Amino acid sequence: MAIILVNAIGLLIILAVIWWFWLGPKRSAGQLVSSAGKLQILVKDGVYEPDRIRLPAGCAVTLYFRREDPSPCSEWVLFPDLEVSAELALNKATPVEIPEAEPGEYPFNCQMQMYRGTLILE
Predict the structure, then answer these.
(1) What's the CATH number for 27-121?
(2) Rounded to the nearest 5 degrees, what angle is found at the Cα of 80, between the Cα atoms of 17 and 103?
(3) Which parts of the sequence belong to the EfeO-type cupredoxin-like domain (predicted)?
(4) β-strand pairing of 39-44 with 61-67
(5) Cα-flanking dihedrals φ and ψ of residue 121, to 5°?
(6) What is the b/e burial string over 47-78, where b = at least 16 CB atoms within 10 angstroms of the residue's CB?
(7) pTM for this one?
């Protein structure tokens, strides 16, 4: 009986992790920021907030990542398609320069790809 209980609890934990990182509620359209605006992204509790960011295409912009999660996974933010990365300071807003790019969706994530987000250029 104890083996069944332990396995059931383990399965529930696995399902909760899958739901949290991959199947959880998604943000609708994302937050729109003008090219001159400042946007602060909060890095906390395993997520970027907001995790979907809409910006106008064709202009460089600076995003500010505020890391409140001390876990090592949250130390870096990577924009692989834009070849941009930055080490995030704990409890400080770290500026990340995003260069001009073509319209499209550009994923961003931590180095372990547990924190995930999307930059949408329109």
Answers:
(1) 2.60.40.420
(2) 105
(3) 14-120
(4) parallel
(5) -105, 125
(6) bbebbbbbbeeeeebebebbbebeeeebbbbb
(7) 0.72
8-to-1, 14, 59 alpha-carbon distances in Å = 11, 10, 51
Tens-digit pLDDT profile for residues 58-75: 888 999 999 999 999 999
Q: Is the peptide bond before 50 cis (omega within 30 degrees of 0)?
A: yes
Query: What would the 3-class secondary structure string for the chain be?
Result: CHHHHHHHHHHHHHHHHHHHHHHCCCCCCCEECCCCCCEEEEEECCEEECCEEEECCCCCEEEEEEECCCCHHHHEEEEHHHCEEEECCECCEEEEEECCCCCEEEEEECCCCCCEEEEEEC
Spatial separation of the C-alpha atoms in residues 72 and 48, rounded to whole Å? 15
* Residue 76 tokens, joined: 């870096």
Query: Domain spans of the chain?
Result: 27-121
d(CA 29, CA 61): 19
pLDDT digits (tens, 9 = 90+) for 37-65: 578 999 999 899 999 999 888 888 999 99
